[in-house]
TrEMBL record:
InterPro entries: FAR, FAR_NAD-bd, NAD(P)-bd_dom_sf. CDD domains: MupV_like_SDR_e. SUPFAM superfamilies: NAD(P)-binding Rossmann-fold domains. GO terms for molecular function: alcohol-forming very long-chain fatty acyl-CoA reductase activity. It comes from Fictibacillus enclensis. Coiled coil: none annotated. This is 3-beta hydroxysteroid dehydrogenase.
Length: 353
């Protein structure tokens, strides 16, 4: 890699991706597209890096709000583009999601088409473009007439279609599952997704703990270090050109079992009874209960998602580089330990309405 353009900085995955790439590609020049509202934070994180440039811009605007001089420089130097900027909030309003996820991707697509030295365009989608589909979901499937659980899913689906329709652009589409902390250190930036389980259990440590229904649905979580390692492998593999990859757990646990493992690790006991999911959903329809348990209602859907994500393409490419997804049971202790140490950090808490 000679020149890399990364969106989404100083977001967590973009920051972790840059950190790893700085170790591997010491001669590479990095350009980070940073929204004006995030520029001071970005400066702090990228300080003292002579091969890192910060360009203030906006993916929702034509030309990315870059100057002609910046655009010319990028055309002469950029070989790889990593598009991570998106809105990931499950409760995001439709117009905001569409503006960032769809319009933003359309503008990045237009930008990459103007790069004469482009070797790869890596687009971060999500496994949940599958929406409400059930059963086996394959990597070469996208539009199966599915409906969606929220505007995040529907706009990421529409955005991925735009990337897949690009002609003459060497793209690679990444579809992660639910991303959690580092498999060794537990480090993460936000306590959402499975961390809502921990926030819920924090309120129940002195009473008999319930299972949340009897669902046998699989819950697909992946640590971010696997996402980073896999992404960098795919970004340079000729076998990944114009293909889609599920960065998901090939052997995910049932939601009920994953819930029990977290419960035992966090509060030292297993659930002993079952509460119907309809009751939980009803309770979380009231803001008082959502704020008390610190859980988003929208998160419940992902614990009863009755589908399995096939990752055959991913396995074929990553096995050559020795990259594989860790087993949840091997890193749940690190994940919980990090949560316990940082659960009162306001920067990591997701505000619940």
């Amino acid at each position: 890699m000679n020149g890399c353009f990364i969106t989404g900085f100083p977001g967590f995955l973009a920051s972790m991706l840059l950190k790893e790439m700085l170790k591997l590609y010491k001669e590479c020049e990095f350009v980070l597209l940073v929204h004006p509202s995030q520029i001071e934070k970005a400066k702090d994180l990228a300080a003292n890096r002579p091969n890192v440039r910060l360009f203030t811009g906006d993916i929702t605007m034509a030309g990315l709000r870059l100057s002609p001089e910046q655009t010319d420089w990028l055309k002469n130097h950029i070989t790889h583009v990593f598009h991570l900027a998106a809105v990931y909030d499950l409760a995001v309003p439709e117009q905001i999601a569409a503006n960032i996820n769809i319009t933003g991707t359309r503008n990045i697509n237009a930008f990459v088409k103007e790069l004469p030295h482009l070797a790869r365009y890596v687009y971060f989608s999500t496994a949940y473009v599958s929406g409400k589909r059930t059963g086996l979901i394959k990597e070469d499937e996208l539009d199966a007439g599915q409906t969606f659980k929220n505007h995040y899913e529907s706009t990421k689906f529409a955005a991925e279609k735009l990337v897949a329709e690009l002609d003459g652009v060497p793209y690679t589409i990444i579809r992660p599952g639910v991303v959690v902390g580092h498999s060794k250190t537990g480090e993460t930036i936000k306590f959402d997704g499975p961390y809502f389980i921990m926030r819920f259990l924090d309120k129940l440590r002195y009473v008999p703990v319930p299972y949340l229904g009897k669902s046998e649905a699989l819950f697909n979580v992946v640590p971010f270090d696997y996402i980073i390692d896999a992404t960098l492998c795919l970004a340079e593999s000729d076998d990944a050109v114009n293909k889609v990859f599920h960065l998901t757990d090939p052997s995910p646990y049932e939601s009920r079992k994953l819930y029990r493992m977290i419960c035992e690790e966090l509060i030292g006991k297993a659930p002993s009874w079952t509460i119907p999911p309809a009751v939980v959903e009803f309770m979380l329809s009231f803001s008082f209960f959502r704020r008390f348990f610190k859980v988003e209602k929208e998160a419940l859907e992902y614990f009863r998602c009755a589908c399995q994500y096939d990752a055959a393409n991913t396995s074929k490419v990553l096995v050559k580089a020795g990259v594989q997804c860790p087993d949840f049971k091997d890193y749940v202790s690190s994940m919980v330990a990090y949560y316990k140490e940082n659960r009162k950090d306001p920067e990591k808490l997701v505000y619940i309405k």
